[in-house]
Amino acid sequence: MTHTPEAIYLQLGQLVAEMPDLATGPITPEMNEWMGRAVALVELVDRLDTIPLKVACQTLNSAIRDSNVQTIAAIVHQALAKAELNAPASVRGAFIAAGDKFDAFAAGSFHLLRSITPRARAQLDQVLRVLLPDTRLGHPSSGNPKRSS
What we know:
Blueprint: H1 5-17, H2 29-45, H3 50-58, H4 65-86, H5 101-113, H6 118-131, E1 135-136, E2 146-147
Antiparallel strand pairs: 1-2
Helix pairs in contact: 1-2, 1-4, 2-3, 2-4, 3-4
């Protein structure tokens, strides 16, 4: 069965979005199913990454569980990034691996800002400055929005 770069990217993005909490609690059948899908999809992107991924999945419930969880998450996110490079431009950036809801909102807003007029963007920027004073929105061609430090 062949997989297109677009299909692999979209499936990995969905996998990241559905990542269960692997760090705590008993290993459930759902966790095992997710890890099985992770290994299969990562293998389509980079066969070498499947070796440490399989080891981390198979030894998840051990004294080094936190390390295994980090290994799994890092490899899956790396595979997503690699798949994005091979995906058609029309679907790139479809998934935002956000650290919190604000990051996802800000990134989504950035993509929305790219499609509106400069006047409307300026008005929206004024509103957002009042609502979110620690945030500055860049010009759509300048990169992602940034949080002020």
